């Protein structure tokens, strides 16, 4: 398959309009061919704004379009399972926003549907396609900062005034652990190359926001190494990640978003000397789309299969249980 893959977008979510669609449009392997909304006017308006050829007034219409190869799903979390399974049954490959599902059981069902249909299903953690993460993992494994003793990651922002936001609907999968806490959790699993054995999380559940976790802090145990993290939707914006070794530290000031030239750079301090590591600026959303395209074209396997998403959901499940029941949860 040498032609560009045609993508269809299910919904007009802000992340799709602001980041994912423009990223796909920068790709030489992909193009955005259609967008759907339950309101045809919204779909058409977004299509006009972003130069998308086709607008549909229902998700079903888009899935029935035989020209669409790949579907991107940025819908609220509680709709991920339904529309992923329906897309798979329609023979479409799928990029689904994180978190993949509301829980690991849903994620397993989605994985099974994709496997049965013979399509790829990828969770949209775009940050991991930025080339700095390979460089950081190489540094860790080379012993550049000695033995790894721990990780500290945070991701917070303040959107609490928008009380109608889908992030503040408990039954829709709202809350800071689902929305941003999933990033440091996922990054620790990625960089350490193993799964945690226990979690302990404390959270602030806000009655003003349908009792979702507006702030959470936790400890994710990976045997002798742990990730300490916090996440929130009612706090000042920040998203650094720090990796502590016996002989040094790797610091990533903007660990999960890289919008501008230089925002992907990181620092390493080893044996008392600190230096900045410069990384070529890339669009992580484009890299993500191209990675999926290469797998669809059978040019390269997916580096992160859907079972990675299932395993991440198991950790998120444990974090939410720990926060609700005020207990350490063993995985």
From TrEMBL:
Organism: Paenibacillus chibensis
Gene3D superfamilies: Dihydrodipicolinate Reductase, domain 2, NAD(P)-binding Rossmann-like Domain
Pfam families: GFO_IDH_MocA (PF01408), GFO_IDH_MocA_C3 (PF22725)
Domain spans labelled GFO/IDH/MocA-like oxidoreductase: 134-251
Keyword Cell cycle carried by entry: no
Protein name: Gfo/Idh/MocA family oxidoreductase
Alphabetical keyword list: Oxidoreductase
Gfo/Idh/MocA-like oxidoreductase N-terminal domain span: 5-122
Family classification: Belongs to the Gfo/Idh/MocA family.
């Amino acid at each position: 398959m040498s032609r560009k893959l045609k993508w269809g977008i299910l919904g007009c979510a802000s992340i799709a309009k602001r980041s994912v669609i423009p990223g796909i449009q920068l790709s030489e392997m992909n193009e955005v061919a259609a967008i759907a909304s339950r309101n045809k006017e919204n779909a058409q308006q977004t299509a006009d704004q972003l130069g998308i050829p086709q607008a549909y007034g229902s998700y079903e219409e888009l899935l029935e379009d035989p020209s669409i190869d790949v579907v991107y799903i940025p819908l609220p979390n509680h709709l991920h399972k339904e529309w992923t399974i329906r897309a798979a049954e329609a023979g479409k490959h799928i990029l689904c926003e994180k978190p993949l599902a509301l829980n690991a059981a849903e994620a397993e069902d989605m994985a099974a549907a994709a496997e049965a249909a013979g399509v790829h299903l990828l969770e949209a953690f775009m940050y991991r396609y930025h080339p700095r993460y390979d460089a950081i993992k190489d540094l860790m494994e080379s012993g550049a900062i000695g033995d790894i003793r721990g990780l500290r990651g945070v991701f917070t922002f303040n959107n609490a005034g928008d009380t109608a936001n889908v992030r503040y609907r408990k039954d829709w999968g709202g809350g800071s652990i689902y929305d941003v806490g999933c990033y440091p959790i996922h990054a620790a699993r990625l960089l350490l190359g193993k799964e945690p054995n226990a979690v302990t999380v404390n959270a602030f559940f806000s009655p003003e926001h349908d009792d979702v976790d507006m702030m959470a802090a936790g400890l994710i145990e990976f045997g002798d190494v742990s990730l300490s993290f916090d996440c929130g939707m009612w706090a000042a914006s920040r998203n650094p990640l720090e990796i502590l070794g016996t002989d040094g530290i790797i610091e990533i000031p903007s660990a999960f978003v890289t919008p501008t030239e230089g925002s992907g750079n990181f620092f390493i301090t080893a044996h008392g000397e600190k230096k900045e590591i410069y990384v070529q600026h890339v669009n992580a959303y484009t890299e993500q789309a191209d990675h999926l395209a290469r797998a669809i074209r059978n040019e390269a396997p997916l580096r992160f299969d859907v079972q990675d998403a299932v395993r991440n959901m198991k950790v998120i499940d444990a974090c939410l249980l720990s926060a609700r029941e005020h207990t350490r949860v063993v995985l």
